[in-house]
Amino acid sequence: MSRPESIENRWDILYRDYPEVYEAFSNTPYHPTVYEQLPGIVDLRGKCIADVGAGTGSSSLALAQYARRVIGIEREAAMLRQAQQKEQGTGDRRIAFLSGDAIALPLADNSVDLITGITLALYPPQQYRAFIREGRRVARGSVVYLGISPGWYGGDLHDIIQGVEKVDDEVDRIFIEEFQFACQDIFSNQEYGTVEHIVNTYGFIFGKKAIEHLKRQGKTTIRWKFRVYWSRPT
Question: Chain-centre distance of CA 221, in angstroms?
Answer without folding.
Answer: 19
